[in-house]
Design goal:
By secondary structure, the chain is an alpha+beta fold. It has 5 domains: 4-62 and 121-205; 68-116, no CATH class; 212-325, no CATH class; 340-527, no CATH class; 556-673, Isoleucyl-tRNA Synthetase, Domain 1. Helix content is 49%, strand content 13%. A hairpin with a 2-residue loop joins strand 2 (44-48) and strand 3 (51-56). It starts with a strand and ends in a 10-residue tail after the last helix.
Length: 676
């Protein structure tokens, strides 16, 4: 069976686009080839900034022949009163290339069985490849020249081979060929390649390493070799460098030691985030005045000098702003935030500071009252550094600079810790005074933002979320995973709205609650992939007050997931839910549990179910165990009692008992939505 090879060559893609692009290309091809009956093997995908490569070691040489049942007109429309074919039938026969004698009939329609000959794989590929290539989605796309199609960067060449022979097609003016290109500067000439093995071998001979894992290994090995100490290599920075180059080479550079007087986060951020350099530390862990840079081309000495100049210029700017900042304290910067707008209708950052202070203190009152004053101070100072010179120069340091300045002023460790963590996705346990204050600030920050925007009717739509409201909810869910405090986020809505009300901002609480539930529901579906889709729907479809309580949602998902395989239980739990749902549609009268009394039960089975539901309720801590205990009494009740009895009083009390049982299950999820 033939091997298929595709390489799409283009101008340099942004580092963050590459892996997703070749992964999406492989996935789209695999799905399409499978639907066409041509896929015999899984794809191999790889890529660099200048090329996306996908190979299938084995494809079918051609499609198998097939048949298709095509329905024609109804019998009534196909034949006249005399039994002769009508114009509708003759038109159908002509469109299908058959005669009326080739048709068959069932009780309603005429049918024709069409023989569909399989197509050659090369022909199919030539048809589908342009659509799949140009159908790739990117965060940002562009048009070039006179072309109307959008792609991340201009396409420069396309290599397409099946069994060593060309698959001929055109992609927006770029014809496919059996040629690739090497490194843009070291080996730009074209060369022929017909198989993946030949392509990768020749790419490496032409200064291109096509596999990401091997580029990472090269970077790690060379960095370790050239670093004058221990390079600080994060996974994100390693990935970014590996996707920025085709032939990585590590070089070492230095900067004047005088810059080490700047706060360490400034140095590390300037090197790692802005210039994509690896900072270097000595044996004691102290930052040194050297760095490692990964170049894709050029000469070591020339590139090193350029890096040192660029980094020196950035450090020089940072030092200027740092020295200017040192002339003032955080209170000065706090007041300067009066000139920074948070949102046109929601006021300034300075106004927001007052809201955060009170809301953080309110959160602390709910979970750990001893840290209220610290939480209030952290909330007040949280955004003060937005008006500093250093943050205006290095915006990614917001929070970090505030923490540095707060520490220098002698603020408590808890406040410093909270300022440091406020923008970070929670990943560590929030414990002790420091942890509680940080958690209170994070909750206040996200809830103030959510209530403000949602209260104005501004919410995410489709893939658009310009104000990061989904991210805010994701942060709250992640926080709960690492914080033992019991808190429902919906319970903080009134306090958050009160902060706005005091500042003259009128918000719609109904919109806030409805939208917040919706965002939480969507985030659970995205984040909790360990649960099957029907389990998620069973739990999240229930219109419950606990949707904004991640711990309760997680517990309910675990309960439903664990009970899903127990078919007897699922069937039993569905019985009261189904009958109550049906009765509600008919407006049958039913009571809620507070009205229901044991004396209203008219049968032994009804009394037994009443006892099973109510007697142990006050002591129930294991909901799953309690649910399982209800299986026998529920089935006995339904098997031996006519729920929809003729007598209205009997029907009312039996339906009411069923409603109580259904309501108990629905506190966790709708078990009727489970599949299988």
């Amino acid at each position: 069976m033939p091997e298929f090879l595709l390489e799409v060559g283009c101008e340099e893609l942004p580092a963050s686009f590459v892996e997703r692009a070749y992964g999406d290309l492989a996935e789209a091809l695999a799905k399409e080839l499978d639907s066409l009956g041509l896929k015999n093997s899984e794809p191999i995908a790889m890529g660099t900034p200048r090329r996306l490569i996908v190979s299938f070691p084995d494809l079918a040489a051609r499609q198998e022949d097939s048949t298709k049942e095509q329905r024609g007109p109804s019998l009534q429309a196909a034949y006249g009163p005399d039994g002769n074919p009508t114009g509708a039938l003759l038109g159908f026969c002509k469109s299908q290339g058959v005669s009326p004698d080739d048709l068959r009939k069932d009780e309603q329609y005429v049918w024709v069985t069409k023989h569909i000959p399989g197509r050659d794989t090369r022909e199919v590929l030539a048809e589908i490849l342009p659509k799949i290539i140009l159908g790739l989605n990117f965060e940002k796309s562009m048009r070039w020249g006179s072309f109307s199609v959008r792609f991340a960067r201009p396409i420069r060449w396309v290599l397409a081979s099946l069994g060593g022979e060309l698959v001929s097609f055109d992609t927006e003016g770029v014809p496919s060929a059996l040629v690739s290109r090497g490194h843009r500067f070291y080996a730009p000439a074209e060369f022929e390649a017909k198989t993946l093995d030949e392509l990768t071998t020749k790419l490496r001979a032409n200064f291109v390493e096509p596999e990401i894992d091997k580029r990472k290994a090269i970077i790690l090995e060379q960095t370790k070799k050239v670093a004058k100490g221990t390079a600080e290599i994060t996974d994100d920075l390693l990935d970014e460098n590996a996707f920025l180059c085709e032939w990585p080479t590590a070089i070492c550079g230095t900067f004047p030691e005088s810059y080490l007087e700047l706060p360490e986060p400034v140095l590390v951020t300037a090197m790692a985030k802005h210039e994509r350099m690896f900072p270097v530390r000595d044996a004691s862990g102290k930052l040194t005045n050297s760095f490692v840079f990964i170049r894709n081309s050029g000469e070591d000495e020339t590139v090193a000098r350029g890096c040192e100049w660029v980094l020196g210029a950035r450090f020089n700017d940072a030092r200027f702003f740092f020295e200017q900042d040192q002339k003032h304290d955080l209170n000065y910067f706090l007041e300067k935030t009066s000139d920074i707008l948070f949102q046109q209708q929601l006021g300034t950052v300075r106004q927001r500071a007052d809201r955060l202070a009170e809301l953080a203190a309110t959160v602390a009152h709910h979970v750990e009252s001893s840290v209220q004053d610290l939480a209030r101070e952290a909330g007040l100072l949280a955004k003060a550094d937005l008006s500093t010179g250093l943050v205006s120069e290095l915006s990614s340091l917001q929070g970090v600079i505030g923490a540095q300045y707060a520490k220098a002023e002698g603020k408590s460790d808890a406040v410093v810790h909270a300022l440091t963590l406020q923008y970070k996705t929670p990943s560590h346990k929030f414990e002790g005074e420091n942890g509680h204050v940080a958690a209170c600030l994070i909750v206040a920050d996200q809830m103030d933002k959510l209530v403000g925007y949602l209260g104005l009717g501004i919410e995410p739509s489709g893939s658009s979320d310009p104000f990061g409201l989904r991210k805010s909810v994701t942060t709250l869910i992640a926080l709960v995973e690492h914080w033992d405090a019991e808190i429902g986020f919906a319970s903080l809505i009134p306090a958050a709205m009160e902060g706005y009300r005091k500042q003259g901002v009128d918000l719609d609480e109904t919109k806030v609650r409805a939208s917040l539930d919706g965002i939480f529901r969507g985030r659970y579906e995205a984040l909790y992939s360990q649960f099957s889709y029907d389990v998620l729907q069973a739990v999240l479809s229930v219109n419950a007050f606990w949707l904004t309580e991640p711990k309760v949602v997680k517990r309910n998902l675990e309960i439903v997931q664990s009970l899903k395989s127990d078919s007897l239980f699922v069937q039993t739990a569905s019985r009261p839910i189904n009958i109550v749902t049906a009765a509600s549609k008919k407006n049958e009268p039913m009571s809620d549990s507070p009205i229901l009394k044991k004396g209203d039960m008219d049968t032994v089975e009804a009394e037994a179910l009443y006892d099973a539901i109510y007697t142990p309720r006050a002591n129930v801590t294991d909901l799953k165990a309690h649910f399982l205990e209800l299986v026998a009494p529920i089935n006995a009740f339904f098997d031996n009692n006519m729920i929809m009895a003729e007598d209205k009083s009997v029907r009312f009390h039996r339906l009411s008992l069923a409603k109580v049982a259904a309501g108990l299950f629905m506190t966790v999820g709708d078990f009727t939505k489970l599949e299988g």
